[in-house]
Write a structure and sequence with these properties.
The chain is α/β, with parallel strands linked by helices. It has seven helices and nine strands; from the N terminus they run αβαββαβαβαβαβββα.
Amino acid sequence: MKKKRISKKKSRIKTKRSLFILFVLLIIAFIFLRKEDIEHNNERISTVSFVRGVDVSRYQGDVDFKRLYEQNIRFAFIKFTEGKDYIDPNFQTYWDDSYTWNVKRGAYHFYRFEVSGAEQGKFYIDNMGHLNDEDLPPTIDVEFYGDYVRRPAPKEEVKRELRIMVDMLREKYNKNPIIYCNRYVYNKYLEEDFEDVDIWYRYIGDGIPQLPGDRQWTFWQFDDSAKLEGYGGPGANEFIDLNYFYGDMEDLNNYGRDENN
């Protein structure tokens, strides 16, 4: 009996040792695969041309676009309107100064789920008026806020109203609008529709983001806590958002131009 107990004990020890070795091998395999994935993403980043830009609103205070340009910033999305009755108080100053210092500019609208698409489209158009041929297309920022974080607006309702606004902007400016979103908004409202708009995608993480169905994003917000020189003042945020445009400077210069011109 004693020999049998010793034999069973040895068997349990051997089993535990085998499981431990297997566990260690799995960890090594995971680390190796993770390293390969990171190296692959780094290789992709190094072989794709990106152009760097920012997005700004009144929270950046006094913005010196000349100083931003000197730090390799070549485009800027500028907060313009929100809902049907708000205009960013710093918009006109940013709009004029970015043009002066050769930073390609775009005016974005913060979309409000409780306001109709027609009202929001009209408010943008009435207050913007003309866009230059070299300006970025009109942009709609769609993100969850307030109670909509926990209870998103109904899918079909948002798609219907957002479509109305998109079509109004396209008809007015003859440019394909841009929609800003994160993966939650994209998956809920955009994945199966809006293939006629360009995507400005928020992704803060490792590697290059990939959209479902191999759809290509056009702009990528990759950092929401960057620090640059050239903005600030009383009450201003110490951080600024950084973005990439998918392409080189020639692509960016040609991007968004009216095809009829």
